[in-house]
Every structure is written in C-alpha cells, then in structure tokens.
C-alpha cells in the first residue's frame, strides 16, 4: 500500500477542523497530519509537515486564506490547496483560484464525497466542475482579459488549443482524444503552456483560457 495522502486543515473554527479530521481520518489512504486556525500558522504547518493537500478556509482573522494561498503557491513543491467556502458563488473563491488554489469545496460537501475529492486534489486534478468555473468567471468583472490576451499571444496554435481544453476541465486523456495526440505529447504541451503562462496548476491555466476568450462563458 502506498503512503497515505498527508492533509493539513486550516480553519479558524476548531469544530470545523475537528469535523474534517474525523471524516478524513476514516479513510485508510488519507491522514490529517496537522491543522491551524489562521493563514500564517497554516503556511508554517505546510512548511513543517509537507502535506500533499491543504484544505484552506478563505475568511479568517489575521492572515486570511487568500494571502496564505499566495504564499503557499510560491513554495518549492507546493501542495495542492483546496479552498473551503460556505457558498460556491463566493467571489473569494475566484480570487483564491487566481492566487493558486487548485479548486474549492463547499463546507457542506457530504462526507462520502469529501474523501474522494481530496484524492482527486492529491492526484493533481482540479476540484471543481466546469459549470462552477463558468458561473464564477461570468460573475466576475472582465478586468483580467487584457492581461490574459497578452500572455496567450505568446503561445503556439497548438498550445492555444491545449489551453482551451484546460479551460473546459479536460484531462490529458480527453485532450489527447480531442486533438488526436498521444497522452505523452499532451503532457508536454500542458507543461510548456503552463510554464509560458507562469501558472502553478491547471486551474490557473484554465481561468486564463476563460479570461482570454478561448472558452465560451
């Protein structure tokens, strides 16, 4: 059996931390290795405990979740950070995704779904639906469009196609099928595209695809 997925929970409500610890602790392949009650302590816990996944509340006193996500995204071998929110239309969520979060979870997510979504995040995939992404982006101002268009202009035509697929939330296998490429080739295109765009994860790249108008809203 492989090593369990190490998780750190950051939330200013001790009861929420205890609740998530109990749920995740019921899975044999998941281990909550620590928790913290504010963003600064959360970043320290990530540096000290080196988790694969961080569940991060966005609204906390002191250093909030958005600031903590930005700091964690700059760490070498940064873990996947999943934003915790009460409402999926919260504009803090969109800011968290732009800051480097790989997805978000509503705090009312059923226990049986929560464990599976942590596994998805640990595997490097986005933890939100394309529909949720479209709703969030459509609700935001188009202030990022000009910057995104400038960044995308440096991509090749193939890289633009791959970026559009990321905006739709497609996996490497799905992109390969659509573009008639091998998965290995797609993986290379994804890596180069994210490097050019200075994106830390697929979610950030997907948002840029929306901002640049490569995906219909």
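Sequence proposed for the structure above (217 residues):
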């Amino acid at each position: 059996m492989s090593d369990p997925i190490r998780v750190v929970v950051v939330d200013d409500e001790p009861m929420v931390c205890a609740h998530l610890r109990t749920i995740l602790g019921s899975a044999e392949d998941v281990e909550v290795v620590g928790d913290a009650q504010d963003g600064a302590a959360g970043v320290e816990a990530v540096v000290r405990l080196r988790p694969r996944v961080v569940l991060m509340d966005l609204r906390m006193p002191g250093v909030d979740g958005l600031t903590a996500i930005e700091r964690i995204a700059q760490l070498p071998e940064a873990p996947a950070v999943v934003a915790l929110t009460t409402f999926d239309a919260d504009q803090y969520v969109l800011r968290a995704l732009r800051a480097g979060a790989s997805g978000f979870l509503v705090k009312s997510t059923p226990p049986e779904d929560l464990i599976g979504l942590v596994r998805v995040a640990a595997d490097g995939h986005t933890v939100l639906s394309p529909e949720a992404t479209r709703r969030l982006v459509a609700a935001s101002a188009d202030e990022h469009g000009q910057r995104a268009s400038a960044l995308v202009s440096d991509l090749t035509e193939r890289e633009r196609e791959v970026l559009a697929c990321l905006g739709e939330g497609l996996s490497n296998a799905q992109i390969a099928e659509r573009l008639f490429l091998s998965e290995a080739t797609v993986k290379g295109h994804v890596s180069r595209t994210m490097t050019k765009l200075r994106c830390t994860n697929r979610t950030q790249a997907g948002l840029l695809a929306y901002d640049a108008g490569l995906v219909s809203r």
